[in-house]
Structures are given as structure tokens and as C-alpha cells.
Amino acid sequence: MEKYEVRLSGSGGQGLLLAGIILAEAAITEGKNAVQTQSYGPEARGGASKSEVLISDEAIDFPKVRNCDILLALTQKAYEQYNEGLKEDGILIVDSSVAVDKNETHKVYSAPITESAVVNLGKPMVTNIVALGTIIGITNMLTKEALEQAVLKRVPKGTEDLNRRALSLGYEMGENAKI
Amino acid sequence: MPSTLVEKYFRTEKLPQIWCPGCGHGIITRSIASAIDQSGLDKDKVCIVSGIGCSSRAPGYMDFNTLHTTHGRALAFATGIKLANPEIKVIVITGDGDATAIGGNHLIHACRRNIGITTIVYNNNIYGMTGGQYSPTTPKGDKGTTAPFGNIDKSFDICSLASAAGATYTARATAYHANLLTTLVKNALANDGFSLVEAVSACPTYYGRKNKKGNAVEMMEWQKNNAVNVAAASKMTQEQLEGKFLIGEFKNKPEPEYTSEYQKIIDKLAKGR
Amino acid sequence: MKKEPRLMQGNEACVEGAIAAGMRFYAGYPITPSTEIAELSAEKLPYVGGRFIQMEDEIAGMAATIGAALTGVKCMTATSGPGFSLKQENIGYAAIAEIPCVIVDVQRGGPSTGQPTCPSQGDVMQAKWGTHGDHPVIALTPSSVKETFDLTVRCFNLAEKYRMPVILLLDEVIGHMREKVQLPEASEIEIIDRKRPACSSEEYLPFKPEEDLVPPMADFGTGYRYHVTGLVHDETGFPSNSTKVADKLIRRLVDKIEMHKDDIIQWEEENTEDAEIIILSYGCVARAARTAMKALREKGVKVGLFRPITIWPFPEERVLELAGKVKSIIVAEMNLGQLVLEVERLCNNITKIDRVNKVSGEIIYPEEIAAKVEEVL
User: Domain C267-376: which topology?
Assistant: First the structure.
């Protein structure tokens, strides 16, 4: 049985809730089961934000992450807060702005996710899509095609090209990070 | 032997009503029935809603679709009825405590929405059903069982409150001026939006007795002698108006009604399909 | 043709279910974590000719819902703990005046403002005893997004069938989580409409029950001019001071549900045949319990799961039967012990009753339940 417990963390306003939804929808496209949950503070922007996705071939009972396989941390605060929950052989994916502890024992992949959204694409709002591309590029937990299909279903009309580019950019960064 | 009006619009088997001898509520209720009659409304399409209190017992005697709700909430129930079926002519009968204290929030928001509800506030300046406690319309200084040393609260002017909150028709009459009251309720019923008519009643049992206002007849005479029509008032000096209160139409300014605005959304979406 | 499976949020499934069941009116007030139910109702209702209104407060939301129900439409309102408290006044009105309507309570941490964005199951007793006086309660509690759809439909059906307010007791986890669901086709959904009078308006007695103890209900505006009050009333609908009338009315309201318990009560059980220990839980916690049960079964522990779907009226008979066969019933719930009181009342001398409780604002974890099972083994 293949099962992934994914935690996407960062700050409010980075689009991680939507990223979680897209990831779950991509899993459904592939015929898998998926559950997405979130937790948030009262603030709509800026506070710590976390979106969790469970993906499995089988029925999913407990809906929250308990043994995190993959942690995405886009901010230092998110890394410090959630790294503890990542299991021993879990994968840590951080934005390059995050300073990883020198005693970090997890397998770490660092990529300039927020920077490339701003610099290469000129749109900070696609940070979440770049991040999803990066996760898939690194883990291959779902196909790029399924992810693209899910992204295009959710993004606003007229932004399809931008999001396709964001996804490819992230995916490449992910593949490169593995080398 | 009941009159033809009473025969036609009242559940005569439920009469006599519970109100005290000398209470103004009976006259006001008859005026409403008369206004409904003159407006030519279909009894089956009229719904009368009330809250809790002396006035709120009125719908039980009236032969329409009638709903006696919880304290203060008549307008909120009525809003549901009107929005769910705008074809129903919705009338709310409420009292001063019901409408402006516990139901004050519902009142201002019903006014603000300009929803097609005609509200008649029976104002007897006291909580009668519970035995004479002061209400938001008890004049400052007057007594109630909970204001044994005189009420220190300022009182509400219900019509000004409703006008300011957005009601598109507001008016006041008294139990004494029953014919005027009928006309004003009729005009209120003709307004598509939210209308409020304050009907000054008299409670000889509690308010009158507590405040030495005399018997029922004397209280009616007080209404007769102290009410000034708005038209006449405009020609009077401040001095002449001292101690008087205004009756007549204060606002009659139709604006788009809430449920028809909602219907526009439904129609627009249906066309867009 | 089956509908495509899709990712859906619990609160969204509630609205989908409501509209499928025939909801055409919603009145409410914004409150976390139920707000999506209001938002989606506002968006979807006008497309089906229905109406939405955001009222000035929670009390008014309940009142408008009842008013609309009297015109013959199917109505719903949704809220969370603080709003549920405010709505109790008019839930009582709906109970005595026998108004069909659905109230959704997406439970969050309390008391008072408590923990607005965190899950809880602290309103179980409020659902039963929240308003004053004796009255029957039907409350259903789903533990998945798909079940939220199904039970919302069922809430409407029960409300219509038994002429009373019915409560859908959701929790923040189920309300906000998204999972894969496959909604049924319209033709597969059973829809029940309230009984309307078959007699003329002259003969109509609005509160005269038929054999099933449910009086037929006429729509306001259709020629049956009748009176509805929150006072104790006789079969004509008019208030009565008679002690006999009061006794008869209140007993009938309660008997109406007692008589149809078998139709109303639903539950789910797993691995109870050979179980030595049963975990009793509901809502999102039942999912933790199932995870715990599966892990324990792999270790050879004979543990089963009992999940009330209808939480009120409580599935007494079945719980009593099971109690006679097991060493312990462990009630796991996100409060300091509410439904467990019902289990204790029933089974105290029959089996040992243990508790797993949590009020931190987090869901109970499977390992917390598993630890309790191993402790009582």
C-alpha cells in the first residue's frame, strides 16, 4: 500500500490551502483517495499556516498527519514549528530562504521557491504552484500530468499559461535538487 | 351581536379578548381590520405575526394566517415568511417592549432592508403582560413596578427611530384617533417596502394607575387633547407644542423593496443559463 | 451515469445535500467554522429559485427559518456553539409548534467564544437539553464528507416526516476537511415531503395528529387560515390553559419520536461479534477510533467499534445488548464526558465504562485511544 502524509507549511497568504486542495485533487485524478485538512489562526494573512494532505490507495480513516512523510516549509518559522513532526526517513523540502539547522538529520532539499516566483515569473502569487511542482519533481509521488490537470482546474481563467510555467519551473527545480 | 367587520375578520368564537376594560388595544385592532378591509386584501393571503405581550395576543382573534412567536422576534419570523413567499401580505403586530427593547435589533434591520412588512406598534408605554414594568417608551420620570422612584431612562421616539433606520413609511395615531389610524394603516399597507405605524394605546390598569393618569376615559381624553397633527404642528410655535406629541404621516418615501430586489437576482441568474 | 468522484469539503457537502433534499430557504449569521455553509447557500440557492438571507443575528436566523417553513418551503440554518446557544430559544419554538427545519451546528471549542477554529464535540448535550422544557430531539452526526451529504438529506427527510426541527451535529474537522466523494444521482436520493391536509380548510385542525402522531401541515397562504403559537395549544392551534391539554401535547411531542425510534435510529458497528472491548465514538473521533481498532486488531486485540449515527435519540437497545457481551466500553469524545453519561446511565451495572476525553482543541489521536484499550485489557 502506498500512503503519503504531506504537510505544507508557511505563512498565511502563500496559497498553501489551495496547494493542498490541488495536491489532493491530483491524487483523485490518479484514482487514489485523498483527504485535505488545514489549521489556521484567526488572521487571514501573515500568520502561520498549514495544510495537510493524506494520499492513499486505501480508505483514509484518521484525517490528520501523524507520521509526516513530506514536509514543505516555506518560512523559517514553519520549519522550526513543524520539523519535529517529520518522521525519521521523511523528506524535508524548504525554501532557500530557510536556514536549516546544522544538526538536521532529515533528508533536505532546498530550492528557491519564493524567489523564483517573484524573479523568474514576476508573480509572487504562484509561489504555491512552484512549490507543488518542486514537491512532485523531488518525490514523484504523483505524475506531473495529474498535477497539471488539477492546477488548471483550480486557477483563475487567463492565468493558465502562467501557472503551467510555474509548475514546470518548480518541477525542474525539484528534479535538479535531487542531483 | 358583532358588526359585519368583526364578523368578517375576527374569530368571533375566540372573543371576548383578554385585554383589560379600558385598554386601547381593542380599538387599534379593529382599525387594522378596517384598513385591511378598505385595502381589499384577500384574507387567505394575509399573514399576521406577533411577538409576546398584550398586543401580541391580537392575531389570535383575527381570521388570517396568524403566527404568535417568541418575545421580540416577530419581525425576524415575518422576514422569513415574506422572503419565502413574497405574495403573502405580512403584517406584524407588536408592542413597545417587544419591538424596541428585546426586538430592537430586528426592528432596525427590518427597516434597513425595506422588506415588505407592515408593522403596527401598540405603544402603551409599559410592559402590561408582566405587570407594569417600565419600557423603552415609558416617559422619563414616570413610574413602573421596576422604576418605583421614577424612570431615569430616556424614552425612544419609535417613528423617528424607524425613519432613521430606513423604513420608507412611518406614521403615528392613537386609539382615540381611530379613523386616522385606519387611514394610516391603509397607507402603510399600500407601501411596498417596510412601513411602521405607531398606535398610541392606553393602559389604565398599569401605566395609568402607576402614574395617576386617571381612568380609561381620562386617558383617552389626554390623547385627544395632546395629539397634534404634523400639518398643524408646522404652524405652531415651540411653546405651543410643549407637552404635545405628533400624529399623522412622518415619512412616505417608497424605495425598492427587499424581496423584489432578491427576485431580480433569481431572474437574472435564470436568464444567464 | 454516475457522478465523477471529486474532492469536497464537509460544509460544502452539507449544502449540496440540502439542495438535493429540496432546501429552498436559508437564513443565518456568519460564524466560524460554519460560514462556508452560509456562503455556498447564498451562491447556490438563487440558481434553483431559492432564497438566502443573512440576518442581523443568530436568533433572527432561526426565527426567519421557522417563518419560511410555515410557507411550505424546506429550510435550513447553520451555526456553531455560540450561535447554537442563541438559537435555542427558537429551536424550542420549532419544537412546540412542530415546524420542520434543519439546524446545522459545526461544533467548535467552548464554552463561550472558546476556540473558534478548533474542533470539539462539546454541544452533544446542548443539542438535547439546550432549550427549556421537555421536547423530543433528533440529532445526527456524520463522520465523513460523504456521510455529511447523506445525513443532511436525512435531516430534511426526518424534519418533514415528523414535523420537527432536526439537528445535524457536525464538528470542525468534518466540516472543514476535504475528501474524495462520489455524490449520488438525484434519482437515487429518497426525498420525503411533509404531510399536507387532505381535508377542506373548514375541517382542518392544524394540530390534530394522525395515527403516526404527526399532524398534517398546511402552508400559509393556501387558504387554511390557522393559528400557530409557542404557547401550549390544543388541536385547533389556539392557546389553552387546560392542564389536560398541556399534558397531552407535551407527551404527544415526545411519544411522536419514541414511536418511530426504529425508523430514526441508525448506527454502524465493526468487529463487534468477537469484541472484548468496544470503542464508542462519533463524528471525526470515530475515524481515530477506527485507525486505533485496525492497529490493535493486527496485534490480535479483540476490539470493536460502535458509532452512533443518530446521536439523539441514542441507540439504547443495541448499546445495552453489546454491553452484556464485553469487558468494557470505552467512550472517546472531544469533551470532558457527555455522551458517556448516556452510556453510563444504561450500562453501569452491566459492564465497565471507560473514557477518553480531550478539550485542547485537537482531535483525539488514534494512539490515545489505543493506549486506553491496552490499559483496560
Answer: Rossmann fold (3.40.50)
